[in-house]
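Example 4.3 (complexes with small molecules)
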Amino acid sequence: MAHGYNGKILDVDLTAGTHEIKQPGERWYRTYFGGSGIIAETLVAEDISGVDPLGPDNVLIFACSVVTGAPISGFNRYSVGAKSALTGGFAETEAAGYWGPELKFAGYDGIIIRGAAKKPVYLWISDDQVEIRDGSDLWGLDNWQTLGKLQEITGEKKVRVASIGPAGEKLIPYACLQNDLEHFNGRTGMGAIMGSKNLKAIAVRGTGKLSFADPDKVKEIGKWHRERIKEHPPNIGLSKFGTPALMEGVNASGFLPTRNFKEGQFEGADKLSAGPYHEIIFHSRGTCWSCSVACKRRVELDDPDYPLDKNLGGCEYEALAALGSMCAIDNLPAVAHGTQLCNLLGLDVVSVGAVIAFAMECFENGILTEEDTDGRSLRYGDAEAMVWLIKQIAAREGIGEVLSLGVKKAAEKIGRGAERYAFHIKGQELAFHDGRGKTGMGLGFALSPTGADHVETPHDVAFQGDGISKLFPMGLLDPVDPVKTDAAKVRFFCIGQKAWGINNLLGLCNFCSVPIHALTFTKLVEAVQAITGWETSLYEIVLGVERANVMARVFNNRCGFTPDDDTVIRRWFEKMPAGPLKGLRFDPDKFRGWIELYYEMSGWDKDGRPTKGKLVELGLDWLQEAETGEAR
Ligand code: SF4
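Answer. The structure with iron/sulfur cluster bound is encoded below.
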């Protein structure tokens, strides 16, 4: 009997209007574990690299892990993946909240969505009842209206809904999915893929219980973790102030992306920090399934220009940087209002902030003029312009149509040298961490299979001094210098990426797991053992992480990515102009060498292709023939 997982994947064909249940067996679960592993395996095994991302042949995958839904803080994430319309390559994006555990309680570990419905539909899953239902009445609704309507239709107040907003319906390549307006599968544009399938939402109600191999031990670890969270400084900070607490420190350290990555400090950062946040807009704390950290913030404000509704989600660090420092806007209510608009409309606030900052820099440099913007000025610091642009982008109107393509394609369309200000990696806009101040994270941005993505890479700054002790079990014994790039830093990234990747593989929240927060590797392994009954180890789990990364790499190679795509943005090859990091940059002549060193450490050849030996080591023999051209 399976413990921790249900052994069932729901496979839905929207073209045919049918579904079936697949039961892949214990060996498959123990090889791919969950999230990143299940998504990568499905994408390479089905070999959809050549399909049109917005066509019916793309495959959209929702994946929990073998431990999702266990009553331990942070064991609640699920991943969504497909071929991305934004990057044209591997996509995977994670969200916390309650939706993933609810799917497990309904009896499924994941969902594969194929084909496309002829007209709008939603998927209704209530334990073993699975229906593709007419969603015409939902089409055009924002995410809040969709949630309310589905509660009404299903008669279930406790229904958990993963939905897209109008942005996903309009196939904006950085449209996201959300659940409960507080939790987002934000990056890589999975809202557009869902929209292309005419799938508005997946509503789930599960009343079952998961079986655990050693339920008392699971309970004991959950209690131990809750107690440790209460005493662990980074978790205490997150509980009290949420991620807005990061604003001040990141700015003081000089790596807060400001004015489209031109600077590393924002003069208005103090107005966006945790103090004013809690004085002016804070309403209450929110949490996710079984999490005692409760880092989520709800905001409320009765303001005629920038009203805030407690039901529409708070404003995390990334949103504060996206619509704040990146656009040089220090008006906190406006930034939070812009974030709530993104939540309602279903736009990834990270890409939105990057796109608006790009437009503002183009305007400041005369590349965009009022002729392009319906007579509107788009200067840095203009909060009204920021809010107007979000609405224009979501409606794909005027300049919003061009910007809705993302910075890479928007720059191609605008021409006139706009590409100098279009900052992306593999087509995806960057999250807000300046690689000049965290060079390991900079390498991660360059090498992430999803394009620049901050939740796939370790943050160097956490592993200075005694901080490195959290990585001792991975064999990293020497403290990290955040701003140095050398062979030791490449080693740190290569190994640290595997440690960090556990979170995406097992669906653990980065804010209460290892290696930065309260969980330890020892307790994590004990938890996986107690949940599944497997006599597993850190080694076996890390092999799963590497397997997922290698499969994602193979997928991207098939999609046509080359080593030239493993790079960072122009601005990081230029010296930081001021602040604590003044003068720092990546050396453009040495950078390629660091990437090639990573390839070597990873068992990849000079073209970034995993070698036959690496594929065999990871038990990916079934990929060997296709990737190396050699017979098995
Ligand atoms: S730490 Fe925050 S995001 Fe993570 S599970 Fe807890 S409440 Fe959710």
